[in-house]
Amino acid sequence: MKRLHFKLTLEPGLKAIVRLAQLHQYTTDLVDGERVLIGPALRGRMLLNFPAREPRDVLDSLLGEGPAGWNLSGHEDGRSLLVVSTEGSGVAFSAIARILEQVAPEAFLKPIAFEPLPGNTLTAISRSLH
Question: Which controlled-vocabulary keywords does the entry list (predicted)?
C-alpha cells in the first residue's frame, strides 16, 4: 500500500462521526506503549461487526502499526461534514476506506470528495480515477 497525502470530505452522520472520533482518540491515546480505552459507541460497533473477537484486537489489526497518519476535523462551513486529512508520512487510501467500511459505513451513502494534497507522486491516470 502506498502512503499518500489527501483530504476526504464526507457526511457520515452524527453517530458515525462519534465512532470515528473515538477511533482517532483510541489511535492517539497511549499509556506505556499500550492503547487505552475504546469509546462505547465504537466498542458497540466492533462487537456488532465481530461478535467472536475482542474489539481491541479488531481495531489494532484495522489500524496497523505506528502513528495513524490521519486526522479529523469539521468542515469550515459549519455543516455536518467531516474532513479526514492525512498528516506525517500519510496513509494509504485503501486503509481509510477499510476504516470507513468497518467503523462508519454510512459515509458511503453520500458523496465523498477526494482532494490530493501536495507531495503526492500519483501518475496522471491515478489522479483521474478519483
Answer: Plasmid
